[in-house]
Amino acid sequence: MSDIFPWRRPVKAPIPTSVKAQLIRHFSIGLLYPINEEIMEYRRKSGLAPVPPTAHRYPEAVQDVQTLIKAMKVDKKIGLDLDTMEYQC
Question: What's the superkingdom here (predicted)?
Answer without folding.
Answer: Archaea
